[in-house]
């Protein structure tokens, strides 16, 4: 499955400006890819957190049903 997402140019330009102040030049494509990798990591850790929460809730329910 492919999802077509776009990062607003204002966000890209803000990060590019910050990086330029630090002496680093990046292309829009490089920065967009870095943002998407960061978002993908955040989503996967959120999915893990929700899965762990569900497991913990199930354990509580099971222990009370004993």
UniProtKB/TrEMBL annotation:
Protein name, entry field: Uncharacterized protein
Q: Out of the domains of life, which is the source? A: Bacteria
List the lineage, top down.
Bacteria, Pseudomonadati, Bacteroidota, Chitinophagia, Chitinophagales
């Amino acid at each position: 499955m492919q999802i077509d997402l776009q990062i607003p140019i204002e966000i890209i330009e803000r990060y590019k400006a910050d990086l330029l102040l630090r002496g680093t030049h990046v292309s829009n494509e490089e920065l967009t890819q870095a943002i998407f990798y960061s978002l993908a990591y955040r989503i996967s850790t959120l999915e893990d957190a929700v899965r762990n929460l569900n497991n913990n809730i199930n354990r509580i329910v099971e222990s009370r049903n004993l």
